[in-house]
Specification:
Blueprint lengths: L1 E2 L11 E3 L6 E3 L2 H20 L1 H11 L5 H4 L1 H24 L1 H21 L3 H28 L6 H29 L4 H4 L1 H15 L13 H24 L4 H21 L15 H30 L5 H7 L1 H17 L5 H22 L6 H28 L7 H27 L4 H24 L2 E2 L11
Helix pairs in contact: 1-6, 1-7, 1-9, 2-7, 4-5, 4-6, 4-10, 4-17, 5-6, 5-9, 6-17, 7-13, 7-14, 7-16, 10-11, 10-17, 12-13, 12-15, 12-16, 12-17, 12-18, 14-16, 15-16, 15-18, 17-18
């Protein structure tokens, strides 16, 4: 199955003519890429770093029921996923620079609030607001990278950006383990404060101001319905294993969330400033990239959750040992992202998605075959983790390249928001499936089921990648409203 794709015909806003005819360069593109990568690292680090601090949190708040305390993790993920799509359109409306700086400062303040929270309820509230701020940072960051990087260097820039996110997700357990070991759980939030302030200050100085697009703010009713819909579905799937899949609260969250999401999509079909830019899905490769992101997100987040837990619960590793045990895969995630960004041409990005997904599936199948029989790190977990890390770096970078290739610059942030929403939804499904499987009986079979689920989801992403093959030329996606 093939599709067509446009070749860039003009530089995006922010480019200035180079001294060599026919070439363009971006003013300050290196600074923009560095700042965007920094906030992306922070956002995805905070999505995983709390997992290893959870035992410390339970000791800090012994009177809080476990089900409520898990919302320290879930609140961030729910708001992050729920607001990504709306934040993408908001970035294209208000300006990527404005949303980038504002969200970074909000993330810094909410991190400070989380580190100082005297009660579990205030910590959960701070985490929810922190997730909302992170949702604004990501589409604004990638939109800035795409708009301020010449088309010829865009794939390489995406490789650097994706490497930052992949590295953060992979090293979160080891970073969290070190911070908790040296201090306590408050350190994992406090470390964001100086970094966030530095990024916000630098962004205000080096990122050029953008002209107003004149686009309307997103439909408030549709945006609210979309946030409630995604938040409800993600919350229900995240809590299903703890509360029970037939619990009325879970059913209300999932069914009510699905209905709210359907309302948002329906309103977006005819609204002049829709909450969801549905017309982006008319581009076949963008739609297929979203499908690939959904499937690979399920595999990736199931692995990121189960990898350290497997070492701790099955092989009796300490938290710090488990954190360092997944670090080699993080190194290859960075290498894979940089390799794809710098060396793989646009016409072969579909192959990168396919091959990277197959590598990730091989990682899960290796563990599936040995989950109940071996505890050799060097023979089993290390090679599997290297395959998995390489697959993450390759696929995340290639999907971003495919999804953005046919979008005009004024739609970059909106497209990024939709792509990230698909990946976060897939991640929620993967985490929910992992939690459900781990509640069964028989430790070896539990883990075999998790690794098989991961492999099946990654194989689905490989099939989606094979449909993204590019031939010929086509008109770019319509700018739309």
């Amino acid at each position: 199955m093939t599709a067509t794709r446009p070749e860039p015909t003009a530089p995006a806003p922010g480019f200035v003519a180079d001294s060599v005819p026919g070439q363009t360069r971006a003013a300050g593109s290196g600074w923009v890429l560095g700042l965007a990568s920094a906030v992306t690292f922070l956002a995805f680090l905070d999505a995983t770093v709390v997992n290893v601090a959870f035992p410390d949190l339970r000791r800090a708040f012994p009177e809080v029921p476990l089900a409520r305390l898990t919302w320290v993790v879930s609140a961030y993920a729910v708001l992050f996923a729920a607001l990504l799509a709306g934040a993408g359109r908001l970035a294209d409306t208000l300006g990527r620079r404005t949303l980038f700086i504002g969200s970074t400062l909000a993330f810094t303040l909410t991190s400070l609030a989380a580190s100082a929270a005297p009660t579990a309820d205030l910590l959960i509230l701070a985490r929810a607001l922190q997730g909302a701020a992170a949702a604004g940072m990501i589409p604004a960051a990638l939109g800035l990278v795409l708009a301020h990087t010449p088309p010829a260097r865009r794939a390489a820039a995406l490789g650097v950006w994706a490497a930052a996110g992949g590295l953060a997700a992979a090293v979160g357990p080891s970073v969290g383990g070190l911070l908790v070991e040296w201090w306590d759980w408050r350190a994992i939030f406090l470390v964001n404060v100086p970094l966030g302030l530095a990024v916000g200050w630098a962004a205000a100085r080096v990122i050029p101001r953008e002209p107003r697009t004149g686009r309307q703010l997103p439909d408030p009713v549709g945006t609210t319905a979309l946030a409630l819909g995604i938040g409800g579905v993600v919350a229900g799937l995240s809590q299903g294993a703890d509360w029970g899949w037939t619990d009325p609260k879970v059913l209300v969250l999932v069914i009510g969330g699905a209905l709210a999401g359907a309302l948002a999509l329906h309103r977006s079909g005819g609204h002049p400033a829709p909450a969801v830019d549905r017309d982006l899905w008319r581009d076949p490769l963008f739609a297929r990239a979203n499908t690939g992101a959904l499937l690979f997100g399920g595999a990736m987040y199931a692995w990121l959750l189960s990898g350290p837990s497997y070492l701790i619960e099955r092989w009796d590793y300490s938290v710090l040992q488990a954190g360092f045990g997944v670090t080699p895969g993080a190194v290859l995630a960075v290498a894979g992202a940089l390799l794809v960004g710098r060396r793989v041409p646009a016409r072969l990005q579909w192959a990168a998605v396919t091959v990277g997904s197959l590598l990730f599936a091989a990682n899960a199948l290796l563990l599936w075959g040995w989950a109940g029989q071996s505890t050799s790190y060097a023979q089993i977990f290390l090679p599997a983790g290297l395959l998995g890390g390489l697959g993450i770096g390759v696929v995340v970078t290639a999907l971003s390249t495919v999804a953005s290739a046919g979008l005009p610059p004024q739609r970059f942030a909106a497209g990024t928001g939709l792509l990230m929403t698909a990946r976060q939804l897939g991640g929620a499904l993967g985490i929910a499936g992992t939690a459900a499987l781990l509640t069964g009986s028989g430790q070896g079979e539990q883990w075999r089921g998790v690794f098989l689920l991961t492999a099946i989801s990654a194989l689905g992403a490989a099939v989606a990648g094979a449909t993204m093959r590019v031939n010929g030329q086509a008109k770019p996606a319509r700018p739309g409203g």
